[in-house]
Amino acid sequence: MPLLVTAALCSIIHSVDLQPVKQPTSSRLIPIPVELAPRSLQATFRNVTPSDNPPSDTLLGSCPSVPVALTDSDFGNGQYILQAGFAQGESLGATYAVPADQFPIKIDVMEVLFATSNATQETTTEWSVTVWDGTPAQGIQVAHFESDNSILPHLVMPPGSSGIIISVSVDPNDPDQIYIYNESEMNMFSIAFTVEQHNSPGSPCITSPPTSSNAFPCTDTSGLQFPNENWIEAVSGSFCICGTGWMTFQDFPSLCTPSGDWVMRSSYTPVNCNNDPAACCFSDNSCTDLSPQECAVFGGTSQSAGTTCASYSCGSGNGACCVPSTGACVEFDQTTCEVVGGTHMGEGTSCASTTCFPEGACCLIDGTCIGPVSDDDCLAVGGAFMGDSTSCSTTSCPQPIGACCGSGWCLDLTNDDCTAVGGAWQGMQTFCSDSSICDSDCPEDLDGDGVVNVNDILAIVGSWGSSNSNNDLDGSGIVDTGDLLAVIGTWGPCE
Q1: Contact (CB, 8 A) for 303 and 350
Q2: What letter does residue 93 receive in the DSSP assignment?
Q3: The pTM of the whole model exceeds 0.90
Q4: Does the domain at residues 440-495 carry the CATH identifier 1.10.8.50?
Q5: 207: β partners
Q6: Are 345 and 321 contacting, i.e. CB atoms less than 8 angstroms apart?
């Protein structure tokens, strides 16, 4: 696709503070819980926007921007999971569904969170962003930008612990935009960010990029809710056991899959808004059938799509009225609705298009799901309402977080993630901030599961002949027969 270089592309970089914690070093993606407190830095870049010729009807309608995100994070203060181990050349992506009647659309903003944890030096990450009509695996690429430290800056982060929100946007006043026409016929678009060059790359699938000298992408802490919409492009190599190429989290091996959704978001604007005539009411209660845009120009109030002056009476106040005592919806004016103890949904609304008492899936604090129940009933049991018409069969509730104890480390993880990294889960509502949570009078219990057993022998054998201080139980400076005998001598449950 030819590149047009007359548009303005804006990149906003938000810096955030993070608090490091201990982490294991053996897993493919190393989850590091971090606490973020954002601050911001803004820069503007020009002459980088690729585009086909814009639609001939670009100026029709006045459409609001539509924000889309798979994460429940607001990119503000809160907890995140830094996915250390993310290799150079790998990409993180997200796919967003769009109603078919909204195409064509133009992309407004693309955002992603990167972070460091206890970096010992200034880190520089070269990155890129790509846009597809459809999915990364089967869609049509429509735009690609790479940081060059001239037009688009590299991601530079100081020593210590911090984070950066990269926000890339196209100047809305520029005639050239990133358009998606739904040529893929998938009714969706995808955004992906790629680590083109780490500060210190390591060897993919052999040696993870050192956390002390690299920045990594983040996931949220509320659990994986969109396994088919979150993507990763994994690198290839002789020792890469997680697969290669573009895969959704659903297809990614469970041992390799992050426990949350990527902290990414985007926004788009439909090119054409609905210009069909509808009833337009004026202050004198007169009515004229006009398009929403024409109605606004003449100072009127446009009613719901499909309404006409022939069937609608301006000033009547009639609208959907939800009556809790009967569980029914009736169409009354506001006064009558209040008399019968109902809630008026607004003039011009109808029962045909109104859901008075929505029910859906309710996620409980222990990660289980109940429903369908109302939003109020879900709140009453301390749950999180997942939305009208959702169901437990299709809802992945966030799993509870608890302290995960390993040999010399502690992480706040889900039970499944704790098992995956070889730790012992201490139960929900337990946290590593309790310095005594992983204390043990049983040093021979190397995996922290409360029992000295064959797993601890395997840990000794796996580090045989090394100077691993965690497994050198007798303090001889080397893992050998003495340490093996110490494990055998304390065999059984820890007292």
Answers
A1: no
A2: E
A3: no
A4: no
A5: 203
A6: yes
Tally: H helices and E strands in the chain: 6, 30
* Alpha-carbon dihedral angle through residues 18, 23, 29, 35, given to the nearest 10 degrees: -20
Other residues' Cβ atoms within 10 Å of the Cβ of residue 433: 10
Angle (CA) 359 365 368, round 5°? 65
**Of how many residues is the chain composed?**
495
Q: Pairing relation of β-strands 188-197 and 123-133?
A: antiparallel
Q: What stretch(es) of the chain map to CATH 1.10.1330.10?
A: 440-495
Name, in order, each residue with C-beta under 8 angstroms of 139's C-beta and a sequence gap of 6 or more. Answer: 132, 133, 184, 186, 188, 189, 190
Where do we find the tokens 């962003």? 129
Rounded to whole angstroms, the maximal C-alpha distance in the chain is: 95
- Identify whether the C-beta of residue 90 lies closer than 8 Å to the C-beta of residue 321: no
- For residue 404, give both structure tokens: 């995960």
Cβ pair 457, 487 in contact under 8 A: yes
Residue with token string 């437990």: 392
Of the pLDDT bands very low, low, confident and very high (cuts 50, 70, 90), residue 147 is confident
Measured at the CA of 144, the angle between CA 139 and CA 146, to 5 degrees, comes to: 145
Give me the half-sphere count of Cα atoms (radius 13 Å) on the Cβ side of residue 72. 12
Cα gap 140→227, rounded to integer Å: 21
Give the tens place of pLDDT for each residue, 441-458: 677 777 777 788 888 888
Residue 356 sits at the vertex; the CA angle it makes with 352 and 361, to the nearest 5 degrees, is 115
Nearest CA among 192, 197, 123, 193 for reference residue 162 = 123
| pLDDT 10s digits, 60-92 | 345 778 889 999 888 887 888 999 889 999 999
